[in-house]
């Protein structure tokens, strides 16, 4: 089974990215036979910026994203969204891949389930 999680919101300010990554990491932990895919679009592209610093006791999206990658999730990032935010040339979390709308469309068609945050 392939599950696609599309994240639209910024890493902080709401808990959408946090909850999407919680689900991705739980799926990876409990269902090794499931392929978990994450597509970061709109303000969610900032989830893949490395060296995030959060106060003690707060969740850290970068750490959660790295865990998902370590457990086998595939993570793609909307290139035009990066460009629109002036982030096209910055370093991203290792293991993520800059992508585009045709690839997202293919992932949607190939997925058994699509969840949007």
Tags for this model:
35% helix, alpha/beta, Hypothetical Protein Ychn, Chain: A, 117 residues, 5-stranded parallel sheet, 5 strands
Structure notes:
This protein has helices at residues 16-30, 61-70, 79-84, 101-110; strands spanning 2-7, 35-40, 74-78, 97-99, 113-116. The protein is α/β, with parallel strands linked by helices and 117 residues long. The chain has one domain: Hypothetical Protein Ychn, Chain: A (3-Layer(aba) Sandwich), CATH 3.40.1260.10. It has a five-stranded parallel sheet with strand order 4-3-2-1-5, with helices on both faces. β2, α2 (61-70) and β3 form a beta-alpha-beta unit. The radius of gyration is 13 Å and the shape is globular. The relative contact order is 0.26.
């Amino acid at each position: 089974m392939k599950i696609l999680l599309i994240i639209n919101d910024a890493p902080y300010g709401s808990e959408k990215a946090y909850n999407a990554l919680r689900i991705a990491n739980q799926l990876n932990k409990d269902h090794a036979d499931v392929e978990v895919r994450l597509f970061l679009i709109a303000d969610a592209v900032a989830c893949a910026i490395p060296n995030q610093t959060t106060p003690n006791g707060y969740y850290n999206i970068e750490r959660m994203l790295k865990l998902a990658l370590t457990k086998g999730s595939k993570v793609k990032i909307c290139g035009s969204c990066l460009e629109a935010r002036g982030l096209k040339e910055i370093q991203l979390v290792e293991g993520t891949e800059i992508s585009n709308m045709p690839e997202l469309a293919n992932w949607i068609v190939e997925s058994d389930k699509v969840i949007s945050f």
